[in-house]
Amino acid sequence: MMKFLNNLKGNKSGASAAEYALIVAVLGGFVVLGATQFGTSLQTALGTSGTELESQATTGAAN
Fold it and tell me: Of 1, 8, 45, 52, which residue is 20 to 30 A from 37 by alpha carbon distance?
């Protein structure tokens, strides 16, 4: 029984797994934030382009 308890005390694999899980969670958060920011920028760029194209089409049709 004492050998078993000593083995548990020296076992650090659970702590390593928790540290890796924390690192993965933080990196995952950065990926989500980056994708959100990129999506917002892309939506703005496409909206601006679409508005400009509509404006050009309307102006070109009037001439």
Answer: 52
pLDDT at 18: 84
d(CA 61, CA 24) in angstroms, rounded, equals 54
pLDDT in tens, the chain (63 residues): 777 766 666 666 667 888 889 999 999 999 999 999 999 999 999 999 999 999 998 887 655
Report d(CA 53, CA 63) in Å as an integer.
16
DSSP state at residue 11: -
Q: How far apart are CA 13 and CA 8, in angstroms?
A: 10
Ordered alpha helix ranges (H), 1-63:
2-10, 13-62
